[in-house]
Amino acid sequence: MSSVPFDDFDSPRSGRHRSRGVNWEKWGWIYMRVSGVILLVLIFGHLFVNLMVGEGVKAIDFAFVGGKLSNPFWQVWDTLMLWLALIHGANGMRTLVNDYARGARSRAILKGSIFAAAAILIVLGTLVVFTFDPCPPVSAADAHLLPSFCPAP
């Protein structure tokens, strides 16, 4: 039985050596834990405000969403939730690809696809949150759908 500790990466007898530089796996692991805790707060806060406060789920309509997305606090809240959730999910998928993809080429294609999908969704989601117009032009018949702060058509 070897006297080398199981996790001793710097031991010359273990045959494994730590590479110098940034340990991306360690920082990915830390990110998953920190973002997971922050996401719990963001998601449960989101659910509480949308489902419990006021009239509950009955109040969720275009006017409700328009009112929330016109408030800078909720824009930052929703954007933070979007970014953390997408990066968290993409990092988890990257870990699965590293664990189960066999070839280096298929691993690179899969990880590139995950990165591209996450980047596109982050850009599109951020654009929606910050360019959302809660007072779009509507006909007089649909004016009741607009938030109360919108001018009448």
UniProtKB/TrEMBL annotation:
GO CC, one annotated term: membrane
Q: Does the keyword Chloroplast apply?
A: no
The cross-references to CDD domains, in alphabetical order and at most eight, read: SQR_TypeA_SdhD_like (cd03500)
> Transmembrane stretches, by residue range?
30-53, 114-132
Query: Could you tell me the superkingdom of the organism this chain comes from?
Result: Bacteria
Compartment(s): Membrane
Its recorded name reads Succinate dehydrogenase
